[in-house]
Amino acid sequence: MKSAHPPVEWPTLLLLVATYLLWMLATTVLWGVMPALGLIAATLAIAQFSSLQHEVLHGHPFRSQRLSEATVFPGLTVFVPYLRFKDLHIQHHFDPNLTDPYDDPESNFHDPAEWARRSALSKLIYRVNNTLAGRMAFGPALSIWALLRDDARAIRAGNRRVAFGWLLHVPGVALVLGWLWAVGSMPVWAYLLAAYLGWSLLKIRTFLEHRAHEAARGRSVVVESRGPLSLLFLNNNFHAVHHSQPSAAWYRLPALYRANREHYLRRNDGYVFRNYAEIFRLFLFRAKDPVPHPIWPVRRTDSEAASADAAERRNIGGIVEERNAGLFVPAE
């Protein structure tokens, strides 16, 4: 059977080229002429690159996953190895576990029992982190700490897959440092700041992508924006559409939503915002959700359990495909 995936998805590939060009310009000419402009441009390029990595792990822009992943091999984002991002995000796409404090690696909710044992300082930090301003300021640092802590434990326990992800990240970051040393004019400290700020921008998108809801289908948001942030996030503001059709390319998501708007809003129980200006107005200094999961534990319905089985089969298929691509390292 002929694949429905085109040989090359040109919008994604051209945007990837443009992102690399902006990144190179930011770390050389722009930093030399006006450091503030170079920092802003590098921040935008790194955030865009992270969004493109998300496209790649979902099978774009080439039919060959190995070729697609080669296009994002350089460690522009510094803090998160691509392979770790991929594995954790695939786990996140197991929709029946969305917002689960333990089984959803992208959840910001805590188990209420674990939350009750936290210190007053820890509770204050995470409460601030539950505002949009706090998430942008402190969210990347908290995510970096959690990733390093959990991955160090996994590596000590003998998980070769996690260790391989970090090992593969070393030459990717070395390419970035080599560029900064041999060609660029931006110092390493400024680049690390740009990488942090790039992640901070992405926290705008992830801040309310998911909510606590009894039904898995009601947990993913739609932000009906087509502005600059929508491009930076590669239309993942139409997040309910993305979770419904995770293999759909970023440039198809708005049309898919427009063609079935009522369906998606009925499916996600009306979890929708008009634009990011509305989100900033509502939540810049106010929490959207409590930190402890408000309806934990969440029971699965029979239909969601069936969906979970189907999702598990898809994930297993993805692992088999990855094994065939020569990238699979089993966990022990």
Which overall shape is indicated by the principal axes computed on the Cα atoms? globular
Cα Rg: 20 Å
| Side-by-side strand order of the widest sheet | 1-2
Number of helices: 15
As a percent range, the share of strand residues is under 5%
Structural class by sheet pairing and helices? mainly alpha
Helix content: 55-70%
* Sheet having the most strands: 2 strands, parallel
Distance between the termini: 36 Å
**Secondary structure: number of strands:** 2
Mean pLDDT rating: 90
Q: Unreliable runs, pLDDT <50, ≥5 residues?
A: 308-332
What oligomeric assembly is this protein in?
A: single chain
What is the N-to-C succession of helices and strands? HHHHHHHHHEHHHHEHH
- What count of domains describes the coordinates? 1
Task: Describe this entry's structure for a reader.
This protein has 332 residues and is mainly α. The protein has one domain. It has 15 helices and 2 strands. Strands 1-2 form a two-stranded parallel ribbon. Helix 2 (35-57) crosses helix 9 (188-206) and helix 7 (132-156) crosses helix 9 (188-206). The longest helix has 25 residues, at 132-156. The radius of gyration is 20 Å and the shape is globular. The two termini are 36 Å apart. The model is unreliable at 308-332 (pLDDT under 50).
